[in-house]
């Protein structure tokens, strides 16, 4: 009888936990950070990182035919967490007394991901200005190398300079490597040119911001 009550309590606790939190999301995030910190190789801040995923039955849309569009953006959480940890980016931002938030995201879908199909997400920094980092993520199916979707994310640093963060990580990488090693890509400390698609996207964001400032949402008292 006692065993039955214990099992009922455990089952009830699990149901309650899943009702209040998306448990598998937090568990996967924990595993992503664990493997990035203890099992994967650290990389240069301008290198590309790769994480793998699979389109499960909880990721598909109502037609059960392909991955739900919103799930692509959630997958980017794991890709960024892996990148932040392996490059030391997040720890450096925190050490400078700052934080980072997602400022904007644009994604272009090229071909859908079918249920149970395996994909990889490549992540890299493609540009930065004084307060912002721009990252590009690509969803690629390893079986054919096709880019299924491509996303650009704008990461806003709150209270520190993006240039300072990038410079510190580059200098640290040079000191750790000491000299040029075979097979190690040496990246000069030069800010890249803003890609044309990012420039046009930023123009669109500025137009949107200007329109919103001209038409503020009225405050109503209830």
From TrEMBL:
The chain crosses the membrane at residues 6-27. The keyword Transmembrane helix applies. It comes from the Eukaryota. It holds the Pfam family 4HBT_2. Gene3D superfamilies: Hotdog Thioesterase. InterPro entries: HotDog_dom_sf, THEM6_lcsJ_thioesterase. The keyword Nucleotide-binding does not apply. Keywords: Membrane, Transmembrane, Transmembrane helix. Belongs to the THEM6 family. This is Protein THEM6.
């Amino acid at each position: 009888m006692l065993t039955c009550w214990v099992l009922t309590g455990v089952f009830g606790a699990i149901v309650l936990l899943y009702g209040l939190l998306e448990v598998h999301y937090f568990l996967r995030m924990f595993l992503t950070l664990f493997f990035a910190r203890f099992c994967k190789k650290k990389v240069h801040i301008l290198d590309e990182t790769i994480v793998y995923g699979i389109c499960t039955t909880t990721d598909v849309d109502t037609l059960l035919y392909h991955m739900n569009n919103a799930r692509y953006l959630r997958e980017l959480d794991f890709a960024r967490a892996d990148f932040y940890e392996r490059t030391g980016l997040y720890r450096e931002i925190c050490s400078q007394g700052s934080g980072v938030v997602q400022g904007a995201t644009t994604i272009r879908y090229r071909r859908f991901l079918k249920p149970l199909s395996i994909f990889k997400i490549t992540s890299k920094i493609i540009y930065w200005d004084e307060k912002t980092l721009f990252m590009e993520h690509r969803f690629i199916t390893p079986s054919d190398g096709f880019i299924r979707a491509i996303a650009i994310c704008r990461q806003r640093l709150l209270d520190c300079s993006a240039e300072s963060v990038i410079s510190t990580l580059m200098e640290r990488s040079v000191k750790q490597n000491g000299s040029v090693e075979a097979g190690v890509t040496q990246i000069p400390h030069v800010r890249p040119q803003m890609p044309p698609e990012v420039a046009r996207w930023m123009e669109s964001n500025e137009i949107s911001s200007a329109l919103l400032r001209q038409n503020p949402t009225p405050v109503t008292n209830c």
